[in-house]
Amino acid sequence: xxxxxxxxxxxxxxxxxxxxxxxxxxxxxxxxxxxxxxxxxxxxxxxxxxxxxxxxxxxxxxxxxxxxxxxxxxxxxxxxxxxxxxxxxxxxxxxxxxxxxxxxxxxxxxxxxxxxxxxxxxxxxxxxxxxxxxxxxxxxxxxxxxxxxxxxxxxxxxxxxxxxxxxxxxxxxxxxxxxxxxxxxxxxxxxxxxxxxxxxxxxxxxxxxxxxxxxxxxxxxxxxxxxxxxxxxxxxxxxxxxxxxxxxxxxxxxxxxxxxxxxxxxxxxxxxxxxxxxxxx
Length: 281
Description:
mainly alpha; 2 strands; 1% strand; disordered C terminus
């Protein structure tokens, strides 16, 4: 058994749960592209079911990480603290004109503590902030999933290149580039969940931006792309990207140092188990 300093590790059970949740989440966003939407459907009709499915899967993910001996009591304590901080930070912007004050924390935490930790933190942070700001609605499960992917993606960024650790200015530059991509990704994927309901039931006749029930996937994707570009990319998503990048450049380095100091002191047990031999590496 090895005791190494580093991020919260992922075992094979945790990876399996991450793949299952991500696939299910993508299906929750994109199902109108393959299943024709009923003309009388409303955007809140499927959200309660999604929330009922999402929470057990999230709980199973945490249990899988504990079972893999990755997320122990110390990691859960850190998760609780960071979720509370994120919930307190989000009302400062709450997405107004694209101002988003929580993404930088998800990115930095995912980078240091790992993709599994980042995924769970994205879910719990958005859930806690929704309760704090009375922002509970049909959009909440989708926001939780999209934020979870942002945190997970930061944890999947490379830690080294050609055997050399990515640190200092190079690491910060990499996180800034990722923040820009994540900001536009979040806006796009969040648009996808409500676009068929908004543009497909406008009552004003079909437009070049409207969802076509049962239409070809390529045609609907083209219409969705124009819808996203016109309605959110130039303002909301760009504002989110700018805010996140500025926060990363201002506080990114000290927060990374603080997180890595926490990792060293927590001394997480990084061990993986072969599912066939049951041997610990």
